[in-house]
Amino acid sequence: MDLTYRPRRLRRTSSLRGMVQEHSLKAADFIYPLFVHEGANVEPITAMPGANRWDLDGLIAEVERAWKLGIRCVVLFPKVDESLKTEDAAECFNPNGLIPRAIQRLKQELPEMTVMTDVALDPYSCDGHDGIVSSEGVVLNDETIEYLCRQAVVQANAGADLIGPSDMMDGRVGAIREALDDEGFEHVGIISYTAKYSSAYYGPFREALDSAPRAASAKPIPKDKSTYQMDPANAREAITEAQLDEQEGADILMVKPGLSYLDIIYRLRQESELPIAAYNVSGEYAMVKAAAERGWIDEKAVVLETLLSFKRAGADLILTYHACEAAEWLQER
Question: Which domains does the chain have, with CATH numbers?
């Protein structure tokens, strides 16, 4: 054949392929989500094979392992005792609560590890929502933000490096930025859950934290989070959310979930110069684990291909429960 250009020329050897590779993965791209609980044991999470609820001693050991693998950021999520859950979720800003104590331990023992937190009320709420639910069953925006600001300040005071508002209340990024600055935490960054969709992929996560919406009182409780999390049908709306978060002072923008929303990652990459994070969520993780356990897929190959797809779409950072496994596999290359 008389072909002027043959793309396969640059695919002929591994050396050539490496020379022209457009995107790559490294352990420092990963943010490792970790679940913590009270007590002195490690509890496997049934719906997330390989993931656990960590006690504080186990948490330190796991974070040390992550650091040695090249991971430089972890994010903490609390499994809160039922006795501490209330309608106003006030435990979220208890300075002696589980998350502040976990941050303090991590910063004492691994001060160089970047610690990100979650700012939302659902782990602490007996209603299971990210905001305060009124007696009429409405998730209140402005009243919730007051609590989120108090939560963020407590976490920053404990030593958090990045505050992660995951609640999707309007205006919370600007309010949290102002609250942090007023308390002298200008150095603490905000990694905003900018485009967080009302997704079916969160099921295993909600099992891990027991944080799904539920009726714990006589008042009506919204059955899902669609009045504040985004409609999966919408893409342009994500640009609006990104523009608002950037104006309000976010340092990093996040898309959640990641795998089913690669187009959203790409759109935000075109619109913003800020770093973009993708959350490879619990449902995505669980599906890969389940298929791998049955021998239907090559887990290593699928995980690394999936993570690379986030980078190709435009993500700079990836929150993933595969973080340690992926970091080990990358070392083998």
Answer: 25-332 (3.20.20.70)
